[in-house]
Amino acid sequence: MTKRILYSIVVIMITLLSFGVRVYAAQRLAVDYDEPVYLGAAVEYAKYIRAGDYKMLAWSENTYEHPALYKILYGVVLLTQTPLEKLPDNDLPRLAPIDTTEAGDWNIAGRYLSVFWGTITVLILALANPLAGLFLGVSTLSVKYTSEVYLEALPLLASLLSALAYMNWFNKVRKDASAPQRHMLPLILSAAFLGITAASKYVYSIVGLAIFIHFILAVYQKQIPVRLFFYLAIWGILSVAVFFIFDPYLWPHPISRLMKTIIFHEQFQNSRLVNQYSYPFWQPLRWLSAFSVYYDLRPPSAFVFNIDTFIFVLAVIGLPRLYQKQRLFFNWLVVGLAFLLVWTTKWPQYTLIILAPFSMAAAEGCVSIWRLIQRSFQTRSSPTIKP
Predict the structure, then answer these.
(1) pTM of the complete model beyond 0.70
(2) Which of 15-19, 30-34, 262-266 has the least mean pLDDT?
(3) In 3D, which of 264, 277, 257 has the Cα closest to residue 348?
């Protein structure tokens, strides 16, 4: 059996495992806090699509605090279900067991879309690094928020694709900077995926900042020529254009509606709900290291694995190697974690903005431990030279 075939089998097994644990969770998780909000928006969008009233995809201001793309896609999925005029509040009560709710079938249909995006994300990361894909596949945070009607699964995928496409371009121009126009396709794809990331959920755009920092440092270290700034500018402009195209909420009044969203998030940091929980600034580290300890999973039996602390320890061990081998992912992890520590709103789903590089760090931690074990055995087995 060739290494390529074995590699493919491993990636397929990781992907199938990740799909299985997500489907299992989607069918068992109780209704989460924001699911009625996003399912309600999806029901509204589905109603507009069925009626052919497509202009309302842009004019609707339902849940304006987040972009419209993913909610519209949830609406498309609901076209497979019995039409609803609206989602009554008592049909999907928060924290209720999903199989006891009147709108459970509609919610699970939406959950399966998240399962799809979450599984594809694991597949993509596993192709780049099977261990990282495995850790992302079984992480409790990842399983939960890519198995529910939340806005995490699509931008998690799109941000990863943006980073990987950029690195593909960077590696090509680093080897051959004489004709960078020949290598534009990966950079265009990176910009497109970054735009889709922002149009799905703004906070995941932190990957764009990590890419920018990586590029600046590469120019400073003379890994690539300064003249490539022109191509990075194209990347930035194109990503903004794609973002605008895929967020119809902004089409009628771009500036005022964008400002309305920004003001909402700025004010929400000091809202009664955020103050009520009063999480410490290091709360994101709690979510990453022991999610089930600090959060009521409702029910824990919906999760097949619970090895978050193990993954966290590996990620910490793997940080030096991540810095050496995967500088973009290191930047992404550091910049994203800095944002999470500073930002006052510390909901657990926000930590998914760094879950891909975090999983890559855990994979590098495994390699670091294995190399240490190898060196230890080599030292013991090496012959002692007597004087």
Answers:
(1) yes
(2) 262-266
(3) 277
